[in-house]
Amino acid sequence: MPKQKTHSGAKKRFKFTGSGKLKKKQAGMSHLLEHKSSRRTRRLNQDQVVSKADTKVVKKLLGR
After folding, report:
1. What is the pLDDT of residue 1?
2. Which of 26, 30, 48, 59 has the smallest C-beta neighbourhood within 10 Å, fewest atoms?
3. What are the residue boundaries of the structural domains of the chain, listed by start?
4. H or E stretch including 61?
């Protein structure tokens, strides 16, 4: 049987931490930043751990 291919969109968006958790960027930092407060943009600029409900799906896309 052929190997499972990694989803190329997912591999650009998610990274594994050392302990095996999944990290992702938060939405809302690509454009229209002028009217967002500095406090909000600083918060949005931090990486976030993927929720437990989504982890199974994302791992499958990444071939893990």
Report:
1. 84
2. 30
3. 8-61
4. helix 52-61
Type of residue found at 22: L
Asked if residue 24 lies in contact with residue 50, where contact means CB atoms within 8 angstroms, the answer is yes
Give the integer Cα–Cα distance in Å for 39 and 50. 22
- Residue written as token pair 């918060």: 43
Q: Which tokens go with 50?
A: 């993927």
Give the integer Cα–Cα distance in Å for 56 and 59. 5
Amino acid at 5: K
Class of the CATH domain delimited by 8-61: few secondary structures
pLDDT digits (tens, 9 = 90+) for 18-51: 999 999 999 999 999 999 999 999 999 999 999 9
Q: What global pTM score does this model have? A: 0.82
